[in-house]
User: Fold these one by one.
Assistant:
Number 1:
Amino acid sequence: MIAKIMLLIRARSALRHARKAGLPGLDFDAYGRRLARRELAGSRRFGRFLSSYLNPVSCVRYFEFPFAQQALARHFEEGTARSVLDVSSPRLLPFWLAECAGHDITMINPDAPDLARSEALAQHARVSGRLHFSPHGDATSLPFPDNSFDCVTCISVIEHISGSGDKQALREFTRVVRPGGAIVLTFPVKPTREDEFRQQPCYTTQQQDPDGRGYFFQRFYDDKDIQNLIKIPALKETERRYFVESPPGWFQAYELQWIQKGLAVTARDPHLMADHFSDVGPVHPRDRTGVVGLHLTVE
């Protein structure tokens, strides 16, 4: 009990610091905590509540979620409901878009346990039928006709698709979005391309690498990779923003601590992100790790 109280104190202190520092994404943080309280009231499952309440927004999502929300707000008339296909983003974004922005959201996710968790949590969201779930989760072969949606959102997902699946997924996103619609992506970047493998799978969809490197986890894109990825005739780049660590190497050390200590580290995410990540504009980083936000228009 003492440890849980200390975590709560640490989380509140981190949030106060983030507010003073002007960290973006705090609207999503507040929504995630409200959703956690609603779920606790309905399910009485304190363990699940604690994790969701103490870490409603994970690390760089404090920058990625506002980028996606603002891209949609700029692309479409303010206050107009749109049909959005969300492809496996962290669930807080599509839930927020359905409840707070009033969009009609269809969620797909190939990770069946994670999708089931989203379906269970949806009982506590006030979405009035605006949140839908598709059992088919393959981003490289979407089960929807051409021109089915006004927008696709895909936050920190395509980097986990092995081989050339990321390019095929983007072709599929382009196919199902109506002309004039938008695709909003984020994914990790480094000065030079890097593939990351892990010894244990993090998702149920991962398979072992045939060369014995473990399980493919994600790729970090360099600038050339990004240009090749979005080189699709019907796509136009509308906006690009980079959210980058400081100092160089900080994120790798943070990630190791996160894996080892869990909530003891991530409960401080608002503080850590306010101090160690920033929006550096449209220029690819030369010596640091970060994420890129892309707002693409389908012509």
Number 2:
Amino acid sequence: MNTHIDQLPPNASIMKKNPNLVLPVTILGISFIICTLLLGLFLKERGQANQTINVTGSAKRDIVSDLGILRGNLQASGATAEEAYQNLQQQRPAILAYLRQQGFAATAINQSTISLNPVFELNGQGFQTNNILAYNASQMIDVQSEDVARIKQVSLDITSLVNKGVNFSVNPPEYYYTKLADLKVEIQADAAKDALNRAQKIAEATGSELGPITTARMGVIQITPVNSNMISDYGINDVSSIDKEITAVVSASFRLE
């Protein structure tokens, strides 16, 4: 006697006995499949995101200053404020005449307000008293010119005025490049191109394809004398030399595909 027994999966048997479980079990199964797919996509994207390279590009150009400034301080003293002022007034024409003889126009010569300061007597302990010994008068005078070579020459020679009784102390000349704003944009673009070229070479060497740029950061501009190794986290703007170098740095990250 043959007995036929239907063989049903365990879950099917349970669901047959409990039809209310069919929908929850189906939803659970679909949710599991979706979660598995999402996890796979997440792991894939995370792996791709980690496949990046970081490079630093740089660019350098030589520049020549096109503006020079020479500053100096004219000084005089006297027993009274009026006497100190008059002594300064007597010295000033010699400086102005000298600068005009060097080819500087009157509009290129600037004069600041005259300062008058009392000189107080010190007591035996080195402390200042209320007794005024004399007065000092001082005035800043500067000259600007696009002829930076002339500015340099005058800075070396102007102290000869001391032979004419002129008390004029000169500061080191300052040299500037006036087209710096436009040049900064150009040199930063060159540094970015250099970063791209470096990234492409690295990708080729590793058998990868270079993807899009993910991050980029511009470094500070360094303006230094020619052949100088000076560098600063805050940037350098050298004004002591006529011939300079301007350097830009760009740090960038690229995705590899």
